[in-house]
Amino acid sequence: MEDALAGTAWAPAPPKPEPKNRSHKMPLHDNVVAELMELWRSGELKGTTEITDIRHQGLRLRVQPRGPTYFARVQHAGREYRVRIGRADAWSLAHARLVCTAILSHVATGNGVPSEEWIELKRQAFLHVDARKKGKTADAGPYVPEVMPRQAPVTTWSYAQACEAYLSWAQAECSEGVYAQATVDNYRKTLRCPTLRAFDDKAVVDITPSSIAQEVEELRKAGKRTQAADVVRKVRMLWRWMRTPDRERASGIKTTDMDRLKAPRLVGVKGRQHFPPLDECALILATARCGVLNPAVGTAVQLTAWTGQRRMSIVTAYRDDFEPWDGEPGWGLWRCWHRKPSGKKGKEHVIPLPPAAWGPFTAYLAWHRLEYGEDQRWAFPQQRPAKVGSNRPMGHIAEDTLTHTITAIPGSKSSPHDLRRGLSSTVQERGGVHVALVGYILDHSDETETVRQANGMTRRYTEAELLGFKKPVMEAWERFLEPAAAAAVLLPREELKAELVRRRAEQRGVDPEADKARLRKVAAAQYAEGRTHRQRKRAAKDAPAATDPG
Predict the structure, then answer these.
(1) Side-chain half-sphere exposure of 28, counting CA atoms within 13 A
(2) Cβ partners under 8 Å of residue 336, min gap 6
């Protein structure tokens, strides 16, 4: 900074020895500020200098490598404050002098030091006045309150801190079996969504129901009614948790105001249900087994189409849950579980797999053992490798992976849950199978009174696997689904693969070309450092050979 100022006509000669920081008193001019801005942009500013404007009381220009910045010096409650006005590239000298006068008046009238928001409103008002003088606008301009004092820092939880505490508590409850991990993940996904992250730095005591309601309304207008309702439900749960006596001191929440928050009604839910015809189910199955998808993801989609089970049951299947059916050549059994809040517990739900389903699945299991070894328990392991140095074991594929893959298939309008409706509708309408028998496969307890009574009794009072009742359902489903899948017309392999990639990118909202460039850059960096999945896998295989004395 000393070298930069020494070459200007207005800078006084520095004393000997030259100090690191200097202070000057001089009249500020627009050309002085412009010259300083030019020096800053060229990177010639070094050290820190503060210039006092002798033409305007209290105004300072602090010159530093981060950029020249205007400040106001004020005395309040026996202390001297430096109130930041703003950078010199955002504020003109005339506007800085005007707001400096306003700051001094704000303090002198007993209203304390003004907040940064008030200073920014002042700047917007000055810019609007200039625009009106030039005829560029005719509106009223922003509203600026007469006073807006700076608030004392809040010592209670911010929204981000409250979420962290709540989710830690929920995770601890999950470890004791109170909640399922999927429930905790759902809480986290909702409470940390982009809509609510805007409140991260705000104290929870300052977050009002109206501010949350405004964000919920924006979601509703965007057509995201379900997400809006979920946000309301989880926010109310969080506030109820925070106002308990043991957390009241940390959160500062003592009222029940957030209970006034109302979720938008979910209208037409039943009308939006999709009942995929047989041809659509067959198209999904044919695409899943044609080889364009990752083997684990493709086989998971096939299992969904064949059995109509829920996403969580599919993705959390263990490899050892599958076995041949003794006495029924070509058939297999999948020992699934009935739904439980805290995971896979209770009596097994056994589903027979017909030959058309069991044959490809046995081939997949053979590939699975060669690819992952005997230690991998998940039938459908996650496909993105763990981070280098991470000790976390590989998990299973995500539920959303199943949903996004099925909805990305050209010609598919179905979600994984819709395939349950496709199976049930086809075997009842075309195969004449009774709804009660279909209920044994779908493991559903509230479709009809008949299903509820039958499933409720068998779950509680018998150990029978009821395969004799389940086999006719799967025989009927195989009789219709397999010929339709064999007759399904797919795009050529490369076109189909490209269309799946395009639709997945569209779902994620990314630019395919920009994403390709980003992935190429990441892959090149990982390859140069020897951190790619194949390099790490090869190194792990070569490690025992390197230590072999033979």
Answers:
(1) 27
(2) 307, 309, 313, 317, 321, 348, 349, 350, 351, 443
- Residue 188, token pair as written in the block: 């986290």
In this structure, are 436 and 306 located in the same domain?
A: yes
Q: Does residue 384 sit within a domain?
A: yes
Which comes out higher in pLDDT, residue 56 or 518?
56
How do residues 507-536 score in pLDDT, each as one tens digit?
877 776 777 788 888 888 888 888 787 888
Same domain, residue pair 282 and 352: yes
- CA angle 344/345/350 to nearest 5° reads 75
Tens digits of per-residue pLDDT, 190-209? 999 988 988 998 899 889 99
| Predicted local confidence at residue 453, as pLDDT | 44
Question: How many other CB atoms are there within 10 angstroms of residue 184's CB atom?
Answer: 19
Handedness of CA 195, 196, 202, 208 (dihedral sign): positive
What is the torsional sign of CA 545, 547, 548, 549?
A: positive
Contacts of 436 (CB under 8 A, 6+ apart): 448, 450, 451, 454
The predicted model scores a pTM of: 0.54
Domain count, the chain: 4
Task: Kindly state whether residues 218 and 286 are assigned to the same domain.
Answer: no
